[in-house]
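Subject: complex prediction, re-run

Hi both,

The earlier run crashed halfway through, so I resubmitted it with identical inputs.
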Amino acid sequence: MENVIKANGGKDLLSGVGKRFRKLLLYALLYFVAITTVYPLLWMVYTSFKSNQDISMNTLALPTKLHFENYLEAWKTARIGEYFFNSILVAVVSIIFTILVGASAAFILAKFKFKMQRLVYTSFIIGMLIPIQSILVPLFIQMRNFKLLDSRWSLILSYTAFGLPMAIFILESFIRDLPSEILESAVIDGSSVPRAFFKLILPMSRPALATVIILSFLNNWKEFSFALIFISDEAKKTLPLGLYNFLGAETNNYAGLTAALVISSIPVLIMYLFMQEQVIKGMTAGAVKG
Amino acid sequence: MELISRNRKYIFIGLFPAVALYIIFVIYPIVRSFFYGFYEWNGLGEPIYIGLKNFQDILKDNIFWLSFKNNIFVVVASILGQIPLGLFLAIVLNSKLKGAGFFRSVLFIPMILSTVVVGLLWSTLLNYQMGVVNYILQSLGLEKLALDWLGNPDIAMYTVCAVIIWQFFSLYMIIFLAALQNIPNDILEAANIDGANELRKFFSITLPMLWPTVMTAVVLCISGSMRSFDLVYVMTQGGPANATELMATYMYNKTFSVYKYGYGSAVSLVIFVISFGLILISQSLMRKKNSDR
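This time it finished cleanly. Structure:
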């Protein structure tokens, strides 16, 4: 008995030292990953305040004087302001469509029973698995047939259509769990079904709608492939596409480029700052079923 | 429910906009791409039916096979890079660590940035002459390691994969973190009492219990890698010398640079089949392993 205790004691002592060493190693690795993640982003932000001359002299150094004119130049000369406006417009209109169209479909799928219900639902959900690249060519031809190339509608319609699977998935499961009695009694009291949808179902679905809005905004804001093939008119380009041009035109203008990168990240960073938990939960949930 | 079913006309009204949009802009294009794949078409004139010729050409095209190989490389690098890294970070953050919440928030930031921003940022950081990476390596006296990260065909693919991992590892970290929090504490405590060490606990308790999550992560890696068009297009456009060509960039070049719409559609179809095939195979393989346990 004594022996056993002794042996255990010795082992504990040994693993105590090992434990401290392991903890140190874990911390070192964690800090390494954190620095590799954060430093590039910090570099982007502080470089955007340096002059190109300062950057070429020492890329790592912090700015000695804040060159706000980089932002002005990016906004005006590099047309980032215009791209920014286009991105906001396309993202917001697409979100409104996705919400209205997606929520009404989700409502019907959740609270009504009809033939082919399963089929309709499943075909929407499978949409989350489709690699967008595999339908770029036919969708381009489709947009050309509709004479929508170089129109913001090409982006709005495709963002809405490709946002629907995710919106319907999230909203359908949420609305299904809302008690049916509320809806029934509203209808008995003389409310029409559309009225009940707008006055009851939509307000009650607010948490799910928030998730859909966040996910749609992030997706639409970063979308590049569709914009690349549908839009060639400078005046209608969205931010990702406009940024891409920036690289081709002014390869060595790091000050302007980093300012443009910061400008285009500000909306998503603000969103993340205020709704971090919803963003993280929404994105992981959105990814896991996809 | 009877009152609702009396209002059947609303089924049609409520579903119509969503179904119409979805058919016009998602389903119909997929079906059409199936047909275009059997035609030779420059996008303007009359398409000419050529049967399976496009697909035969794809099989004989070395650049297609190179891009296929690169796609598989991205899949493997994502699985071997993001999953272990994500799992490691999740375990570290799940242990009672000071500042875990802070690390979690900060590490997630690359996920929310647009891929074009990430691509442009890393293109500048990795620039051969002016980039921060080489500047740091040189100041550490490691001049030999200051390579032309994106310009050297031998290493460009590794560089691209590293950036992909940098952008997406935190997604896996969060997924594993959520799964770890679902492991009941008393199991691990019982193992502690039995004197199991950390490694033993990881392999006999944590990993088996996380297995379904690992399976999801593998599927995510596959479908995510098949979509990594934006990043490669921004950073290298598939170059240098096709070294980072992916099936999607290859398809894009064939269609929109040399106007082979029929051929591009055929490649699209192949991408579609391969990604669905990989997802199905990985799911059934993982399921088998899962039931073995």
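The radius of gyration of chain A is 26 Å.

- K.
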